[in-house]
Here is the input.
Amino acid sequence: MLHRDGHRVTLYERFETPRPLGSGLMIQPSGMAVLDGLELAHQVARRGARIDALLGIEEHGRTALDAPYAKLGIDGVFGLGIHRASLFGVLFEAAQAEGLTILTGHEVLSSELCAAGRCLVFADGSRSRPHDLIVDASGWASRIEGGEGQGLLPFGALWASVPVTGDDPHARNLLEQRYRRASQMVGVLPIGSRADDAPQEVAFFWSLPREDHTRWCDTPLDAWKDEVRALWPQADFLLERISTHDDLTFARYAHRTARKAHGERLIRIGDAWHSASPQLGQGANMALLDAWGLALGLREGRTLAEGIRNANLWRRDHVALYQAVTAAFTPLFQSDAALWPWLRDRAMAPLSRLGPVARVQAQLMSGLFGWPLPMLGLDVPDYSAIAASMAARASSPDQS
Ligand SMILES: Cc1cc2nc3c(=O)[nH]c(=O)nc-3n(C[C@H](O)[C@H](O)[C@H](O)COP(=O)(O)OP(=O)(O)OC[C@H]3O[C@@H](n4cnc5c(N)ncnc54)[C@H](O)[C@@H]3O)c2cc1C
Here is the structure.
């Protein structure tokens, strides 16, 4: 976005070469609006899987969460489950095609003001040339913020991407979860396929307290599988495709908001500014909205400082709202508490089936609560066109 606006952009990245990491995430209508603005929505959608609702059932069969996108009242709208490598691939190829300068193998330690701008300080002791503006997009453990691992939550999760076939008994258009109180959660999210000739996959996840991870590594895999089966017997066909501990990656989650979202010649976007548990599935979408807000802010600002202030102003209320909502919701789904899941199942779930509440729930899930798009000159994209290009890919899988 910044490059297209005529800025000379240099991207510093710590890895040497990209490789697929992690598992699935959800692109919500909010994030899809940004991808559409970048003319990348169709490409991303062709790699993903259509998700029509989030369905969570507790151990005794009671529905704890039923959140269909249809309750938004927007024609044809849906969520998109996708492997994070697919999203990365589309964005990376677009950045390369724009001719951006991409410098890998550069681990940033900090930044400092210098005579002609702001410089980055790298792990090998070298410094970048001065830049007019440093955009910190280095994720929740940003060194520029100072201090790795702030705000780590007690619960993380084991994740695996598992190939599936057309005959497998899983719901193709649902993000499904099963809960035992709030201390155990198993879930399956369809995430499409990473390449035209690659199999369809689902992301499988199992919540786990951080402090139990080492113990889990020492537990025989079959004992763990029995525990999962006891909560969700239908997940057995996926468990059979997980053969070693190494097939699962443990993801830690952090809830934090940077003390200063911006400073002189510096602005933070995405997780470097604010990160949260993925319970509401918003992080990547918020990062996309921040990036769009930054480009727009700089475009409309008369000076760099005004551009930075604009970017912050147009995003900060939405960010604060979602940080608060995620902080409130996370203990309902990932905690050792007994009262919260009890209230979730007996009070909140029935309440959320009432029309206006169901609509607010759908707005929250889709990233549209607090009206973030109009402020950024964006609108929910045409989902019938997106669905049509997904269907076209399904019928001719050899065309990318
Ligand atoms: C298991 C899991 C599930 C999730 N599910 C969802 C979901 O369903 N929906 C959703 O929207 N979000 C989800 N999220 C959150 C989402 O992944 C993040 O919010 C999103 O990736 C943030 O994007 P970002 O670009 O700000 O940071 P990141 O994706 O963390 O990217 C940071 C980049 O900076 C690089 N970097 C880091 N440190 C340095 C350094 N010191 N020097 C140089 N480079 C550096 C990294 O290599 C990386 O390329 C999930 C997260 C997890 C862990």
Observations:
- Residues 12-15, 25-26, 106-108, 137-139, 143, 157, 159, 251, 270-272, 278, 281-285, 287 surround flavin-adenine dinucleotide (CB under 6 Å).
- The two ends are 24 Å apart (CA to CA).
- Residues 304-333 form the longest helix (30 residues).
